[in-house]
Amino acid sequence: MLLAHRIQLVPNAVQRDYFARAAGTARRVWNWALAEWLRQANAGKRPNAMTLKKRFNAIKYSDPAWLDENGQPWLRTVHRDAHAQPFANLARAWARCAEQRHQGRPVHPPRFKKKGRSHDSFYLANDRFRLEGMTAILPKIGQVAVREKLRWPGKIMGASVSREADRWFLSVQVDVPDHVAKLRRSRDDVVGVDLGVSAAATLSTGEKAAAPRPLKAWLRRLRIRSRRQSRKLEVAKKEAGIEGRIPKGTRLAASKNRTCGARRLARLHARIACVRKDFIHKLTTRLCRDNQTVVVEDLNVRGMMANARLARVIADIGFYEIRRQLQYKAQRYSTTVVIADRWYPSSKLCSECGVRNAGLSLGERTWTCSTCGVRHDRDVNAAINLQRLATGALAAQSALPVASPAVTPGTIVDAVSAGGGKVTPVRHEHGRQDSSGQEESGVHLCTPS
Ligand SMILES: [Zn+2]
Q: For residue 335, how far is its CA from the centre of ligand 1 (angstroms)?
């Protein structure tokens, strides 16, 4: 099973400088490759990453654009992997773009990367580095201190070095043997999870996990720091004699004040992301560890993000990330994740008698069933209905293997379609995971008031 361990690096000033240069190289090569790709495509040719890379290799030590002021090829000072990988990344980006077009989803073609705007990172092939205890031995710069030891045994598949605010991380992808990667569940419950805005996750047991909503907490500070930063930019523009938009290709003089301000702002953004990630890791680990089946709704996150009033809240909780982590952690605990159909009326059905309350509006937090008279908490009721989807299906399909993550597609669908909703068992896909830490800790959960 492929797992990634993201370790913080503790570089010295020289190494820090190298990282920045390597990430800059990766970005510049990406831009060169993308420009070349678009030029060929516009000329009616079919561009290809391999031939582009060959072309680049032919010019990279001789073309004046890739030489420094002394006429020396500066690419030699950065390890080859940093400028070879962008070609593979570009090919993947175009493939993804083609897939999006094929599926009729919104298409996102690869874009040019801009210094300070794009994610700074570069790649290391597995035979180019090694980890020895609390040191990483990287090409060109040698030993770099790391904050923790590599968590997993197994074959190292590759790594990338990336920056988050002013910290650098090494994300190592390891092919972990199954007997290590697979974890034991602590319980074999079946749980329905209603993802929502008032409580991030409401479980069918009645527990409500309140999201920390770090953005909400830090928004005021974020606004202050952003405003300070934009004022510093205005000053820099004034000194350079620019009014309105900054013309393309201009490089404003970076004052120490502006650099420090930018770092402070970036640190705050990173901190917000960390708080959010911590909560999601603990929640999803707990859900997968304690349950043989987790049922969640198929939320239309993109649709919800289009609602300006909801967007900030949704993004602050991180619904998409919850789903993503549930799916890969389920694989480790052999838990089945069941995604209920988007149109399954989980909040409108009475979990006692099954009558549908069509008149239920979005604002009603509690309601009383007109048929059986039971008073429902909106979210708990929805979570119970979601859980029913799985228990109903389990009862109908008693032969269903309890601990198997691979439910044959179609079986559950038939079993519950009478109940009004369709259930799609989730496929577990091997893939790149950028982070998966905090495995054994508890979750912030509070009981409903
Ligand atoms: Zn009822």
A: 31
CB neighbour class for 205 (10 Å; exposed up to 12, middle 13-18, buried from 19): middle
Q: Is the pTM of this model over 0.90?
A: no
Q: How far is 428 from 431, CA to CA, in rounded Å? A: 9
| 311: Cα separation from own chain's centroid | 17
* pLDDT 10s digits, 26-69: 999 999 999 999 999 999 999 999 999 999 999 999 888 898 88
Spacing, Cα 375 to ligand 1 middle (Å):
9
pLDDT in tens, 276-323: 899 999 999 999 999 999 999 887 776 777 777 778 888 888 888 898
Find the DSSP H helices in 104-200: 178-181
Radius of gyration of the chain (CA): 26
Q: How far is CA 226 from CA 220, 262, 263, 267, 310, in A?
A: 10, 9, 11, 12, 22
Ranges of beta strands (E only) in 11-114 are none
CA dist 194 and 200 (Å) reads 8
The bridge status of strand 155-164 relative to strand 201-203 is: unpaired
Q: How far, in Å, from the CA of 290 to the mean position of ligand 1?
A: 29
* Of 306, 309, 294, 322, nearest in space to 204 by CA: 294
Largest CA distance in the chain: 85
